[in-house]
Amino acid sequence: MKTLFKSFKLQSLLVLAGLLLAGPVAHAQKEFKSSVPWPEPKAIDPGDATRAPSDAIVLFDGKDLSAWKNGDKWIIQNGIATAAKSGISTKQSFGDCQLHLEWASPEKVEGNGQGRGNSGVYLMGRYEVQILDSFNNKTYFDGQAASLYKQYPPLVNASRKPGEWQSYDIIFTAPRFDKEGKLLKAGFVTVLHNGVLVQNHAELQGGTYFDKPPEYKAHADKAPMDIQFHGNSVRFRNIWIREFKELLTPEQAKVSNYLKKVD
Predict the structure, then answer these.
(1) pTM, rounded to two decimals
(2) How high is the pLDDT of residue 263?
(3) I want to staple 53 with a disulfide (CB 3.0 to 4.6 A). Which of 47, 145, 170, 248 is the partner?
(4) Distance (Å, whole) CA 127 – CA 223
(5) Domain presence at residue 263
(6) What is the C-alpha to C-alpha distance for residues 7 and 5, in angstroms, rounded to an integer?
(7) Which pLDDT does position 10 carry in this prediction?
(8) In total, how many domains does the chain have?
């Protein structure tokens, strides 16, 4: 009997050890499903290196600058627009957007600092992403290529050599103001320079100015975008923009539309 008891005890211990080694018994998991009635995302053609996405607004395709005020003042040759005489401004106004453009500073290096390959993209005509030949060209850090002018230097200097083509991909969330002109929400900018993240959802402190600190001044929800002429023959190609809206559930959209009507 003692032997039988010992054998049973040993078997029980072995079973227990096996359970401990095997870990907890797996239970069938119930899938979590969101109850949010999201609208179906629209299908688009994403394009490629030579084609803009199908839902983009093409601002320069190499043929003309008819989408811009003063576009006739720039020089267009071989699919490239070269800055001359004055800045240009889009005829259409934009708010929240994704912007793609390609640019090249002059191959022949002349000048230094801010006098070398200088231009700039002004979101809503107020918030500048600096364009500058910053390849072996020292200047103040919050004024070099891909800086948010006088507010944030880029995280890294991803500049190519003078004359080489460079790209900016900019994600912009416009600031919001109430009907009295009070700032409700700051603007934010993300920038990829030549595919490298150089501004990561940076919070704008206001307009970007050369001669005074940044400050916000109330403006409309949408405004034209500018490209600066700063006396340098900076070249541009393949410019397109995509507008986007804050993602809302159907119920949130109803509330938002109602508040707009009331306001």
Answers:
(1) 0.85
(2) 64
(3) 47
(4) 11
(5) no
(6) 5
(7) 54
(8) 1
